[in-house]
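In this notation, each integer encodes one residue's backbone shape. One such record reads:

___
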Amino acid sequence: MNRSIRDTIKSISKKNLLFPGIIVVVMILILVLAPFQQVFNPPTASSIEDIVRIYNSGAKYVHVSIPDLNYSNFDYYTNKQSRQAAYYYKLDEENGPSCVFFLIPSEQTNGKADVLELYDAKARFITGDVRFDTFLNGFAQDIGWDSEALKEISFGFAVSQFDYRPGLTMIIAGLIIAVLIICVLYMIINVLFLFLPHLHPSCRRLKRFGLDGEDFSEIDRELRDSLLISAGNIHVTENYIVDIGKHNIWMIPLFNVVWAYSYGTWNPLVKKNKLKYSLVIVTSPKAKITIAGNKKHDVEWVLSFLENNYTHITVGYSDELREKMEKLL
């Protein structure tokens, strides 16, 4: 092996920056381009003119703070039993006339108050809504107006607090932020490993065997001068098993290995998938290390080499061996 363990850790850490970096960029773009700002912090309107202007700007949400809304005597029911909301309106006879209708949840209307002295809430614009069209027809009939004329002076939309339900949007935004934080932390950790390889988990794992990052030089020397076999990503030297994967690295002293076996896995979701084999190494002090994603002949070569050259290592798997090892360890 030409590269040192430290260089290998640096290379792995660089690779580990790519995918989360792409995810971070995608999450930031979603946060910037998605209408989260419109949902959580919509523009504020304090008059009919403000509401119409905001609606005409293409906004889907509005924060209304407006006085003196009148009860229309029409309510919105579900299953014709449960009163969910009430229709209120604001009429401006001096400019138009013009009128805006509001669909307000029942709990916000003080029962059925004839006038809401100050209405302050975030809401959603609704258009082309069957229930709103039904209400307009009924309300127009009640006041002796033509429904088309009423629709014209009310600009064809309603301001509905009842339909303002940011819960799902909050969940989506929260998930995006959580993914963003996780990816950023993962990148920070890998940048740390890039400059301080001895902090890498592969070094910390050596501590259970009484070794640390200072032993990298000895492992480097054995990989260079005392390499016994090299089977795919798995290398066996005079004193170590070293696995160098795409995103991780394992260094296991042979003296501490007591049991080794393998098993195959198959992913039916991957086209032209072949069996992949995991090499399982059990050590003393007790630890179970699984080196996944290997070819069958590579794993068999390593197991055969261990069985033929190290009498203290038990090779193979059976229920009897498992029970024996559980008692031993």
Q: What stands out?
A: The mean pLDDT is 86. The longest helix spans residues 5-33.
